[in-house]
Structure formats: C-alpha cells, structure tokens
Amino acid sequence: MSVLSGCGTTKQRKAQKHLRSQLAKEFFDNHFTGFLVIDPKTNDTLFDQNSKKYFTPASNTKIFTLFACLKMLPDKVPTLRYVAQHDTIYVEGTGDPSLLHPYFMDSTAIHFMKRYAHVALHHNNFADTRFAPGWAWEDYQSYFSPEKSVFPLYGNVVTVFQGDSLSVSPPFFADKVIPLTYPVQREEYKNTFYFDPTRKDTVAIPFLIDSTLVRNLLEDVLQKNVAIVNEMPEAEKKVLYGISRDSICRMMMLESDNFLAEQLLVMVSSTLSDTLNTDKTKQFVVDTLLSDLRQPPRWVDGSGLSRYNLFTPESMVHVLHSMYDEFPQIRLFQLFPAGGVSGTLENWYAGAAEPYIYAKTGSLGNNHNLSGFLITKSGKTLIFSFMNNHFRVPTSAVKKHMQEAFEFIRDAY
After folding, report:
1. What is the CATH topology of the domain spanning 2-57+311-412?
2. pLDDT tens digits for 149-171?
C-alpha cells in the first residue's frame, strides 16, 4: 500500500493532519491506539497510526472466523456425516451449531435420523477442548460462553423463562432447574441449574457436555434409543447438508455470538479432516489462505473471548480487503452490523439517511475495537481498523472519540 501523504493533494494532507491531531489529544494519552484507513480501489493508505502493532482484538477476531467460513464452507453447511447400513444410520457431528438452536431451530438432521429404525452415534471425532485457552474460568455459567462440542444441540444452553409456570428448553432439563435465588446459575461440574423465579427475562445457561448427555438429548427428541459406538463403519461417509452458511455467519457478526463463532470454526475444520480440531483450521487459514500477511496473528479462538489473541490493524484491514475483492459488496455488507441500524452498532455511528459504517465491534474490559467498511459522502468505500486497548475510561467515551474521527473521514474523503 502506498502512503498518500507522500503524493496526495493538499486537502488530503490536511485531512491526515487533522486526524493525527485528534489522536494526539490528552484523551488518548493513557491507552494504546492503532488506526489504519485505506482506499481499496487505489491501495492508498489514507491514515496510519500503529497499524503494525499487536492489539487484543476481542470480537474483531470474528472477522478472521468469517473469512475462514466464506472461503471454506459450502453454501449449505455440513450438518452431519453418516453411513447408512440397512435400517441403521451411523452418525457423527461436524460442529454445526444450528441443530435445534433457539434462534435457527434447524431440524434437518433430526428428520433425517428419524427415517431409520436404529441410530448409532460416534462422538470421538473431536480433538479439541471444550474451552479455548485464556477463557475466564468463571464464565462457564454465562450465556456468552457455552462449551465447544462436536454435536451441539439447542445452542448448548438451557433456556429458562418464568411465565405462568417455569418454562425450560430443552425439556430434558426441566427437573434439573431449581427455582431459587442463588449466587451462581449452574453448579460448575454438573448440570444443576438455579433460576431466580422473580426474573422476567429469558435466561440462557450453558450445560456441561459429554457423550451420554448428547445421546440422552437425541433420544428425547428422536423418541428412540441411540447407541454410542467407538468408531464409524469401514465405509465411505456421506454428508448431510443443513441451513445457509451466510445465515449463521450473519447472526455471528450482528450479535457478536461467541458460540456460533466457535462452532463455525469447528465446522470449518470438518472440511479439512474427519477429526475436528480448530487449531489445525487456524493454522491452515494463516499458512495457506493468508500466507501474505505481514504480521501473522496469535489466533487462539474463533470468538475473541481469549485475551491471548493478538492481531494488528493492518492484518484486520488485509482480511477485510481480501473479502471486499472477492465477494459482492451487497452480500458482504449484509454480514456486518450497520451503523445506527443493526446488531452491535444499532446505537452508534448512524448516518443521516442511510448507514455509512458496516463493521464488527470487539469489546473486552478496557478494550474496544471496530474494523470494517466506511462509505464517504463522495461515494468511496474505505476499509479501516480502529483498535483501542488498555483504557480506564467508560467505553462510551472511547466510542464518542472514534465517532468524531469516522464522521470527519466520511466528510473529508
């Protein structure tokens, strides 16, 4: 990328000077900021500050997960691998998160398995951990931190709501939910749940997963016995395809859904091997699909929950640029929250008549980042990554300063 300050117009140089003065304000003194803006048509760098430095990306990590999904998953996601022998279906999971999920409620695999008299489940093709390195141990009971698994069901959470009576989904857990005000929502090492009966909102609590539980949940919904087998038959496995890949990716990006992000990365690994392992997926993406990255990331998980993740603004822009070059803009923008309109940007960065920012947020305590696309008043589409780490002020204050910069860029270019 060429640096515009060496060849740009006086107006463009003044714009750069203005942005640099904004980021030199006392507000930014006590935290670390990186900001890169490019014009993807000309490859000119419009602004650059610390773009080669590594930052904790938080959910900006999902941009890399999205890239992996768009490049490696088919239009309809692989929901099941199977071998059919007479009246028995042998199945193994691919990590598809949509099966009986509270939002997607996909039952493609359920209807398929119901066609057979006998169902046998192979559950040993998951060579991964239930939590990623660096995840907070106390989050085991939090809605945003369900376990990763090979055969997720119901979003790997128990959904509880107090109406005229206590509503529990899946119903299998109904007798394991105790209506009681208690300091935790679930016992750490067993599926005993606590729900404050005075609550009026719906609560999602991750459940503890093992092969026996998955079998029991399947038996409950299939209304037939499910056997557990140690290996699949010696025969060619076929693939059953489920719902649209983009529908899952869109929900991941708009709602910054950690469970979907993790499971999508698990599912991508199913395109590389029968054994599901997200480390191999990440390595393949970085080494093969993104071999030209100048600052290879430390990519730990699919969601960005881990503080071990390290990415640079330049790497974020690089991946966004790759997607922008390969996929139609209208489709790509539908996968990102729109400023003032949707998802995690619904209340920020609104345009006058229509959105001017389509981008992914990334927030952890003391960190807030935004990377994506900005449409200027002149009609240009720019790509940016604005990363802020280690601040001690409210996140809303950081967003206000970011918004000032974005509005200036929108108007100046």
Report:
1. Beta-lactamase (3.40.710)
2. 999 999 999 999 998 899 999 99
